[in-house]
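Consider the tokenized backbone below.
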């Protein structure tokens, strides 16, 4: 009965929320599609648009798709995941989540022993000065680019990953600050920062993630439309003379 009532309550939640919006994501091809094909999960369903509703009411945020839902409760410090198909749910407390992250960090530190690739980040945000109307909103284009370069300390083999997010941002959108404020308060509750937690054993990665959050803070407004392009590139050591072609993925 508890599960049924909880699922039924989700249907009405957006109507009672302080702010809610719908989100649609689609994998159009490239690197991500190739990875899913290798994993054997790139079915017709995987190619269909993924639609979700995100809603915030006070200390609670709900994220619901056709098959599952999650509820974050800052007051109770819990994250509830609901399987709408099986009609079951699980609950994880913030304390349990922090413990899980700390254990993962400790395992990573034990296995590294100085042989993990060194990772460097380069992050930038650019305003293209372009504007257009999308779904009735006046938007402007911002491009967030993150380049990750890794070097194997033993072979000196290098690999690079570039993730470019092309965003059309509407500002201001009444109520969207509730979303940003919710995530800020959640980070405070979890006592999480890029310099600690899951990145504690990798100061190079922590420094890079701190740069990502620093640049992302410049994006004042609500992203109305995004295109994410992911490219991978690898190089051999000093003797190498060629690299693999770049692959891309858009959503």
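A designed sequence for it:
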């Amino acid at each position: 009965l508890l599960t049924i009532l909880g699922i039924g309550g989700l249907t009405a939640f957006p109507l009672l929320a302080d702010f809610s919006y719908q989100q649609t994501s689609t994998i159009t091809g490239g690197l991500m599609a190739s990875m899913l094909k290798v994993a054997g999960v790139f079915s017709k369903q995987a190619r269909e648009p993924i639609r979700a509703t995100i809603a915030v009411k006070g200390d609670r945020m709900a994220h619901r798709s056709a098959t599952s839902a999650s509820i974050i409760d800052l007051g109770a410090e819990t994250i509830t995941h609901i399987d709408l198909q099986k009609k079951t749910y699980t609950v994880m407390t913030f304390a349990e989540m922090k413990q899980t992250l700390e254990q993962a960090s400790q395992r990573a530190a034990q296995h590294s022993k100085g042989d993990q690739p060194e990772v460097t980040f380069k992050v930038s945000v650019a305003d293209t000065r372009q504007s257009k109307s999308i779904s009735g909103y006046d938007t402007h284009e911002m491009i967030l680019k993150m380049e990750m370069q890794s070097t194997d300390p033993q072979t000196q083999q290098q690999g690079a990953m570039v993730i470019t997010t092309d965003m059309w941002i509407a500002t201001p959108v009444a109520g969207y600050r509730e979303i940003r404020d919710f995530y800020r308060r959640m980070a405070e509750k979890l006592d999480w920062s890029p310099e600690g937690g899951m990145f504690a054993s990798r100061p190079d990665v922590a420094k890079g993630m701190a740069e990502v959050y620093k640049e992302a803070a410049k994006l004042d407004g609500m992203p109305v439309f995004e295109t994410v392009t992911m490219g991978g590139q690898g190089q051999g050591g000093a003797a190498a003379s060629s690299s693999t072609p770049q692959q891309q993925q858009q959503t």
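The beta strands are 19-25, 50-57, 60-64, 68-73, 78-83, 88-93, 118-134, 137-151, 158-170, 222-235.
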